[in-house]
Amino acid sequence: MGKEKKLAKARAQKVENTSPISVTKDGRIQIKILAKPGAQESRVTDISAEGVGLQIAAPPVDGEANTELVKFLSSSLGVRKSDVVLDRGSRSRQKTVIVHSSSLQDVERILHSMADKN
């Protein structure tokens, strides 16, 4: 591989690594979430390198916000609730969600269009 191709590939990987939405080694979609529980309505507020900002219309008590997060994402992405799994961060505002039955492009398109509306 030529030097220019290696540099282009390295740049592309660097750009990919700044997205909070990625594909795991086993082909599932992984989304880094920055949750803001206790909101009036659930919605995507922004998308940055740190994560997808989500306001959650449930208090952070007894797992209510996590349940609402899974329900909101499954509804928004058009997948079953069982296809959205809270992987990490059940007691934190920084969470990682795994989505089955969807493509990276579809998830990115939907979440970006929701963020652009706000």
Reconstruct the topology from this structure.
Blueprint lengths: L2 H15 L3 E3 L5 E9 L5 E5 L4 E5 L7 H14 L6 E5 L5 E6 L4 H13 L2
Parallel strand pairs: 2-4
Antiparallel strand pairs: 1-2, 2-6, 3-4, 5-6
List segments where confidence is low: pLDDT < 50 over at least 5 consecutive residues.
none
Radius of gyration: 15 Å
What's the helical proportion of residues?
A: 25-40%
Secondary-structure element sequence?
Answer: HEEEEHEEH
Number of strands: 6
- The CATH architecture can be named as 2-Layer Sandwich
| Class per helix and strand makeup | alpha+beta
The first-to-last residue Cα distance is 43 Å
Provide the β-strand percentage band: 25-35%
CATH-assigned fold name: Conserved Hypothetical Protein Mth637, Chain: A
Care to give the gist of this entry?
The protein has 118 residues and is an alpha+beta fold.
Question: How would you sum up this structure, described in words?
Answer:
The chain has 118 residues and is of the alpha+beta class. The protein has a single domain, classed as YggU-like (Conserved Hypothetical Protein Mth637, Chain: A, 2-Layer Sandwich), CATH 3.30.1200.10. 36% of the residues lie in helices and 28% in strands. It has three helices and six strands; from the N terminus they run αββββαββα. Strands 1, 2, 3, 4, 5 and 6 form a six-stranded mixed β-sheet that branches. β1 and β2 form a beta hairpin. The longest helix is centred in the N-terminal third of the chain and has 15 residues. It is globular and about 55 Å long. The termini are far apart. The mean pLDDT is 89.
